[in-house]
Write a structure and sequence with these properties.
Membrane topology: Multi-pass membrane protein
Order of helices and strands: HHHHHEEHHH
Protein name: PRA1 family protein
Structural class: mainly alpha
GO biological process, one term: vesicle-mediated transport
Radius of gyration: 22 Å
Strand order of the largest sheet: 1-2
GO cellular component, one term: membrane
Distance between the termini: 76 Å
Shape: globular
Number of strands: 2
Organism: Eruca vesicaria subsp. sativa
Largest sheet: 2 strands, antiparallel
Oligomer: single chain
Strand content: under 5%
Number of helices: 8
Helix content: 55-70%
Length: 182
């Protein structure tokens, strides 16, 4: 007996945006943002000083980049956003590109299938990179975007050099309850 007009249910063809993948994407975004450190801790004026030497500066950069990586990414993205406010078309294009990258490359759990062929990660990466570069050239904001990335990198490096690191990893141990008892 056939059911004409019934909605087909098949495990082979899954919709592009099923509820499970949306909830997984939301959870990954929440987990990623949960890794950000408190902004008060990042900009604590008592923890700012110049390094004692070049090796101290490199040590601070390494530790601060690791510890504040999510905060630094947010700072760079905000600088890019402000640099594109004068170019609303480019801002829209960049926003669309970010979502395309997120859903086709970063948050994808299963391989992409196109006309019954499986597309590997390398092909997706190359195609998305080419599309991103072409669209950036077409919107005429390439120099503006490169300038914003440089400004963001300089701001991050200045903070990473000036922010002392003595109190950073002690907070992580205290938060996990790992104390040394002697």
């Amino acid at each position: 007996m056939t059911n004409y007009g019934a909605i087909p249910t098949s495990s082979h063809s899954s919709p592009v945006m099923d509820p499970d993948s949306i909830s997984r994407a939301k959870q990954r975004i929440k987990d990623g943002l949960a890794m950000s450190r408190p902004w008060r801790q990042m900009f604590d004026l008592h923890s700012m000083s110049f390094p004692h030497g070049v090796s101290d500066a490199f040590s601070r950069i390494k530790k601060n980049l690791s510890y504040f990586q999510t905060n630094y990414a947010i700072v760079v993205l905000v600088v890019i956003f402000f640099s594109l406010i004068k170019h609303p078309t480019s801002l829209i294009v960049l926003t669309v590109l970010v979502f395309v990258w997120i859903f086709l490359y970063f948050f994808r759990d299963e391989p992409i299938r196109l006309f019954r062929y499986q597309v590997d990660d390398h092909t997706v990466l190359v195609c998305l990179s080419v599309i991103t570069i072409v669209l950036l050239f077409l919107t005429n904001v390439t120099l503006n975007l490169v300038g914003a990335l440089l400004i963001g990198a300089v701001l991050v490096l200045i903070h990473a050099v000036v922010r002392k690191t003595e109190d950073l990893f002690l907070d992580e141990e205290a938060a996990t309850g790992e104390t040394i008892q002697g």
